[in-house]
Amino acid sequence: MLDVETTLPRKEREFLRHRREILMAAEAVFSEKGYISATMEEIAQRAEFAVGTLYKFFDTKASLYAEVILMRMSELEEESNRALEEAVGPGERIRNCFRSRIDQFWKNPGFFRFFYHGPVGAISEANTGFLPEIRERYERYLDRLREVFAEGIRNGEFRPLGEGLMALSFEGLLQVYLERLSGQESPDRRQQEEDELLSIFLNGVSV
Amino acid sequence: MLDVETTLPRKEREFLRHRREILMAAEAVFSEKGYISATMEEIAQRAEFAVGTLYKFFDTKASLYAEVILMRMSELEEESNRALEEAVGPGERIRNCFRSRIDQFWKNPGFFRFFYHGPVGAISEANTGFLPEIRERYERYLDRLREVFAEGIRNGEFRPLGEGLMALSFEGLLQVYLERLSGQESPDRRQQEEDELLSIFLNGVSV
Amino acid sequence: MLDVETTLPRKEREFLRHRREILMAAEAVFSEKGYISATMEEIAQRAEFAVGTLYKFFDTKASLYAEVILMRMSELEEESNRALEEAVGPGERIRNCFRSRIDQFWKNPGFFRFFYHGPVGAISEANTGFLPEIRERYERYLDRLREVFAEGIRNGEFRPLGEGLMALSFEGLLQVYLERLSGQESPDRRQQEEDELLSIFLNGVSV
Amino acid sequence: MLDVETTLPRKEREFLRHRREILMAAEAVFSEKGYISATMEEIAQRAEFAVGTLYKFFDTKASLYAEVILMRMSELEEESNRALEEAVGPGERIRNCFRSRIDQFWKNPGFFRFFYHGPVGAISEANTGFLPEIRERYERYLDRLREVFAEGIRNGEFRPLGEGLMALSFEGLLQVYLERLSGQESPDRRQQEEDELLSIFLNGVSV
DNA sequence: AATGAATGAGCCTTCATTCAT
DNA sequence: AATGAATGAAGGCTCATTCAT
């Protein structure tokens, strides 16, 4: 990252910086208002650019939205993978990943407000245009999780149930928990709750 | 319900019937298109009423939306409560409730498409106008769940962890599982998966 | 026409009247400003309706434009055909048609301002969506002209040249002449000029 | 032209060359897209200059458009005049001019696509800003034509009708014919048609 | 209650033009 | 003269809501 910032010509650095500024502004507005209620006008103001400028960076509102999500999903995938890799043994990996996911939430709680809810009518045809990429990325992450569960099943650490269901359950617990945190007036982190939740899950899947 | 239908004067019976027809049409359109993409025009057509008529029954699109959800949540609450009551012992109650929730999904899969996702930015301020009531109702249902878990903790059937977290986990598993079913092209019910999921959960919370 | 006006239910009569009012307003604005510079806003104002109302009658600005032209082309075709039918003998028919076309111009000079020029970029793909119908209609009219010329060639009244070229020439003279009239500050009709023009043409194609 | 290129200082020569490059690019884009759909952006790309540079040479899009037309009209005028001068006798001059005009079309068919159609509503007030010059130039060419016809009328070669109408007719036939060629998928030149058309015209105006 | 034509505010998007470098 | 990122006004279109019948 630092390399990029320093080696690229000034013009390109500025381009990337502006692009990033717009993405940040968009993320803020999307998470406050939701996809539909957010207006390009407001995003532009927040980013301190004119509306037209947004369109130099992103073709449509929808693609700007997709890019915001993709940007965060890349981070999520990256860090989750790191967490899975770093630990030794399936149980420890899952434990590590769980904590990493919660850490990530605390870095940017606003994002999860619309990550889990997707664009309006995520299922509707209207949006199939840009959702596939996001879903794909998510599935890739789930695949990685499944591998770890499969590994745990093989070595007898986890119960011989479907590794897909395990991954799904893992995500379900996280999703519901993070949603509740997002909804709190002044969210504060509670270590004990996290440990208990993880314990429920691991107890559930372990032999 | 039957009582209502038969004892009320014809005028009022018709009023209720029309109201219900509109709600059903709205549910269908909302679940197909999502909140934003759904138009009052289309709902009116589906209900075989004029647009103006919809406004005799519901003040705004948002309130119609809320009423659709509230209608289904009443059923959900009712049936879930029945399931919790019918069984004996905390574990059995949870098991029964889990199955009931899945039964309910299969009665009306479309509904869950937008129940979990809520309107655009269900959590956002923009929608706080009609969400409170829904959240309240949901909390009431969660409370009932928590009681059961608390009971199980007291009698040593469940582990001595937070009953709130247990309820949350229960919902998380269900939500993620039902979402996946909704997303399937031609959703089909798989008994074994359901049993495994329940087993993971109960294993997780049980001593 | 009268039948239509009197036998249709009031609602439908109003619908047609409003539709016609919008078409007239649109024609006026299109002929003053041209297709692109004309705005739906201004057309709406001129028609004394709200913008939204225009879209109840016409799907897009382009289709409104096409309908304006189609409406006038129907009249043009109808009256030209009448003129061709009424006279006896090819020469007389053409003579009659020529006069009819000029009469039609004087009934509505504004229309021809954009009829001959077509929408911006009439040739561009962007407009191929709605032009075909107009072009078809025009070709049908040209076909009728060609028949008359062919008839004249067969009976030795016209020279044995291509009837297509004759029809084209006929249209060329009219177009250029009407354009010049449109461009005049205060157009006034000059009988002698018309006769001379017709004479040039008939002399050109006659034996 | 060559003189200009060689005698002027390098700076000025470059200026003129760049100006010409922009004009050519503009002509290409205008003829492909039409005035409105053409964008300064695309013209700039085609000319391999930055948008801003275009504005160093031409104040507005409209004036660039006008200059493109003026450039071609100068050639048209020049060559038509040569054609009129070269031949001997009114009839022969017109014949020569007719052929010259068609030659010119084949040198640059694209240009005529928008020459005859003008910008959006060439006749409309919106565009009167830059049209006058074009119209003037065109009138000058028509004047020259009229002189030839007047000459022919005086010497008894042409019929004693208005020379203005004759010039108009001449233009009408050309316009319609060239338009039809422009519209063809793969335009090909047909000598016989041209001869017939010319014959119709000359027959029409000759004694 | 029922109708549905009419309303008009609001939003995404385009693109000619400017200006700091 | 050359650049091209930034501007922002303007326009087509949608749709929740109203109101006269």
Notable features of this structure?
DNA-binding, Arc Repressor Mutant, subunit A, Tetracycline Repressor, domain 2, mainly alpha, homotetramer, 207 residues
Q: Please report the distance between the alpha carbons of the first and last residues of chain A.
A: 43 Å
Residue fraction in strands of chain A = under 5%
Shape of chain A: elongated
- The radius of gyration of chain A is 19 Å
CATH architecture of the largest domain in chain A: Orthogonal Bundle
What's the number of helices of chain A?
10
Q: Oligomeric state of the chains?
A: homotetramer
Largest sheet of chain A: none
User: What's the number of structural domains of chain A?
Assistant: 2
Determine the CATH topology of the largest domain in chain A. Tetracycline Repressor, domain 2
Mean pLDDT of chain A: 87
Helix content of chain A: over 70%
The CATH superfamily of the largest domain in chain A is Tetracycline Repressor, domain 2
**Unreliable parts of chain A:** 119-129
Structural class of chain A: mainly alpha
Number of strands of chain A: 0
In sequence order, what are the helices and strands of chain A, one letter per element?
HHHHHHHHHH
CATH class of the largest domain in chain A: Mainly Alpha
